Amino acid sequence: MELTYQPFELQLKHTFTIAKFSRTSTPVMLLQIAHEGYIGYGEASMVPYMGETYESANEFLSKVDAKQFKYPFDFEAIIYYLDSLAPGNPAIKAGIDIALHDLDGKLKQQPCWQLLGSKPELMPVTSFTIGIDTLDIMRQKVLEAADYKIIKVKLGRDNDKELIQAIRSVTNVPLYVDANQGWTDLEKSLDLTWWLLEQGVVLIEQPMLKTDIDSNAWLTERSPLPIIADEAVQRFADVEKALDVYHGINIKLMKSAGMYEATKMLKKARELNMKVMIGCMTETSCAALAGAALAPQCDWADLDGPFLTSNNPFKLPEFVDGKWVLGNGSGLGLELL
Ligand code: MG
To answer: Could you confirm whether domain 114-324 is CATH 3.20.20.120?
Structure first.
């Protein structure tokens, strides 16, 4: 097997601001793994707050010996091998894992979603994220987002109610709220959850600092809305730790080191009776389709990455009634432009 890769600066349509950071592009590594005339495509989206860079990705990839990838693939052995090369680096590991899943589907002439046991008719609606901005621009962004059936709002600053009211003045669609660890006061947060319930909010992501287990657990016990772990849960080993601290987890391929471990996390969460959201970073169609392949097994999908970017190098997959459409193409079903 032959592994090749290129850095790709993925441009954002709008400057993206969450509780603690702001940026205009995302460094991405695009990967290809070739075998017997087929090419599997993968993507590592390295959002700055996760700590991976072109430099760390190049360093990791220089250690990877693609001859270790033998078909039929043993994905458990592959992730074990990748973890043995260096700890951390979940996005670049995900890039390799996604390319191998795409290749696996192509070699088997089957879509990845089918190999993973997903039912396309159960595809949940994908939410569309509105970044923090002035109230006027946020209202404008919501009006431009009329194709999406659920809006996700980044909260965690001092004007959370004002932001929600601004959005509610222009849309009635259900809302997801992501505080990105920005809430600090317990009683105020609990009052806010009840207020958000009245505003048609469906769930709340990562209210408090990921390290503050007691506060997140306190809020989860009392909140009328599901509280979902995002920053607090990255890989498989974190799922069990989220039990009794959160109602559910947000699985992202760039945190979980790819599709194989994401599938394991999903199964584990179900065993523990936890809710599951599948999320994304700012990504091209490649990683979005990898997430979409698993989305029908999740309660909620937040796979809007390709919509937030302006130079996606792949064709945008079919999107109907607020949902990604899983096609019958082999592998991820990714189409080149
Ligand atoms: Mg989040």
So the answer is: yes
